[in-house]
Specification:
With about 260 residues, the chain is α/β, with parallel strands linked by helices. It has one domain (about 5-265): TIM Barrel (Alpha-Beta Barrel). It has helices spanning about 5-10, 25-40, 55-65, 85, 90-100, 115-125, 145-160, 185-195, 215-230, 235-250, and strands at about 20, 45-50, 70-75, 105-110, 130-135, 165-170, 200-205. The chain has a seven-stranded parallel beta sheet. Helix 6 (about 115-125) runs parallel beside helix 7 (about 145-160) and helix 8 (about 185-195) crosses helix 9 (about 215-230). The protein starts with a helix and ends in a 17-residue tail after the last helix. About 35% of the residues are buried.
Length: about 260
């Protein structure tokens, strides 16, 4: 997928800008993505892949920090990684503190109840670090009542922390071999998550092109747009772009992209 192809698909749906999220553990992939998105101003940023415990981490973080399109890193349950286990590693925690000091964001990936717990513990160890939780709508909450209670308690505690946002991505999902396209099917899960995090800490994410395995970009938009538009324009604007500025601190690159007055230099 390239920015040009994304532009063809997303602009007709009203999209003005996008942040690329890493899809490879290869270190040199960061350079390739940054070079690619630099050429198309619809792309306002990139969440890359660096491992905070590695000896070369500080060197590469300093290098990429010089590029205004590099907004942070993703770490979670993908690439055989375990955020919770790594929190006992002093080098890893020090790396996250460097990320926070650089004003960058940590995005957690591929949610599980264990990752939610680890994310909460991360906020305790590095309270100055901004965190975006991704893909939670598609995760099935625990069926065991005790585990469900712990999971919900962790979510509510995370929602109290002003440096944490929930990216409402991977809303669409397959159920019994079928992909429901009725927005009402997804409403209870959206109600639950919106009720926990509130209007100032939820933000849009398409999960494209990964979302193609469940439906088109248009289908994804048809599920979240009516839900948030029904809450009024002010809340919809927070969800679709304003909250992402606070979370990612992306910078406008072309005329059609909105900007917060407080963010103007």
């Amino acid at each position: 997928m390239t920015p040009a192809l994304y532009r063809e698909i997303a602009v007709p749906q009203g999209i003005k800008g996008a942040i690329a999220i890493e899809a490879s553990p290869r270190l040199d992939e960061n350079d390739w993505v940054l070079e690619t998105i630099e050429k198309d101003t619809i792309m306002v940023g990139y969440i890359g892949d660096l491992e905070p415990d590695k000896p070369e981490y500080g060197q590469y973080l300093e290098k990429y920090h010089k590029n205004p399109l590099f907004l942070g890193i993703r770490y979670g349950t993908l690439w055989n990684r375990d955020l919770g286990a790594m929190l006992s590693n002093p080098d890893f925690v020090s790396g996250l503190k460097l990320l926070a000091q650089a004003g960058m964001v940590l995005e957690t990936a591929n949610q599980t109840p264990g990752l939610i717990d680890a994310t909460l513990r991360t906020t305790d160890k590095v309270p100055g670090l901004r965190i975006v939780i991704d893909h939670l709508p598609q995760m099935e909450p625990p069926s065991d009542s005790a585990q469900r209670g712990a999971y919900e308690s962790n979510l509510r505690e995370l929602a109290k922390r002003p440096q944490v946002w929930l990216k409402v991505s991977e809303v669409i999902r397959r159920v019994d071999g079928q992909v429901p396209t009725d927005p009402n099917f997804y409403k209870p899960r959206l109600d639950e998550l919106y009720g926990i995090f509130g209007e100032d800490h939820v933000l849009f994410g398409s999960d494209f092109p990964n979302s193609d395995q469940w439906g088109t970009y248009e289908t994804v938009m048809s599920l979240v747009r009516p839900y948030f538009m029904a809450k009024g324009r002010a809340i919809a604007e927070k969800y679709f772009w304003k909250n992402s500025v606070a979370a990612y601190r992306w910078v406008k690159r072309e005329a059609g992209q909105p900007v917060l007055l407080a963010a103007k230099q």
